[in-house]
Amino acid sequence: MTKKEAINILNILKETYPDAKCSLDFTTPFEMLVSVILSAQCTDERVNKTTPNIFKDYSTPEDFDKLPLEKLEELIHPCGFYKNKAKNIKLTARKILEDFNGKVPETMEELLSLPGVGRKTANVVMLEAFNKPQGIAVDTHAKRLSNRIGFSDQETPEKIEQDLLNLFPYEYLKDINHILIYHGRAICTARSPKCSDCPINSHCRFYSSISKN
User: Fold this and answer.
1) Topology annotation, domain 3-20+136-211
2) Catalytic residue among 85, 90, 95, 139
3) 29-128 is classed in which CATH architecture?
4) Which of 120, 143, 163, 175 is catalytic?
5) For 130-181, what is the HEC assignment?
6) How many angstroms separate the CA atoms of 125 and 138, rounded?
7) Residue 139 annotated in active site
8) Is the pLDDT at 213 greater than 70, yes or no?
9) Whole-prediction pTM value?
């Protein structure tokens, strides 16, 4: 796929989902970081139902550092994988206090040094908390749609991200993940995608392949 074709597809989707944005609720960079960690293998909707009860009492690295591990596990239990997530959140809070003066770092390299923070999480925090997109967060929607539409033939998020970065100019980075999530939820679902209702079906290799059968 050429850059021109990819940009045309994304522009159509931008027009389709003009209000596409991050669906996690947060008020500070640290709340954003905690929410993204909790969202791993969990829906944003579930995270947003869980975090208000947490953030009303615990919202800073200091709060989480002092919070007993067992209590944190109890609070985040609805988000799944709570033991590992609680451990990483506690370790991250401590590292932010010790190494970054209590503030969430604003570079990819520093974010990636935090326990439990991979490239997808760091990309989300850089964009949503600091408005400094450095890459593209490749979640399950972005992966599925990139493979179906034809943006990438790769399987790993890291390689898919590189393909996307080669296709899209910097000014598109802030929109790509949001738009693919919205389209993945509304039309290009994992099971039974609504291809006949898709605004980009004439540009999509997945639709082209199933139309021939």
Assistant:
1) Endonuclease Iii, domain 2 (1.10.1670)
2) 139
3) Orthogonal Bundle (1.10)
4) 120
5) CCCCCCCCCCHHHHHHHHHHCCCCCCCHHHHHHHHHHHCCHHHHHHHHHHHH
6) 13
7) yes
8) no
9) 0.91
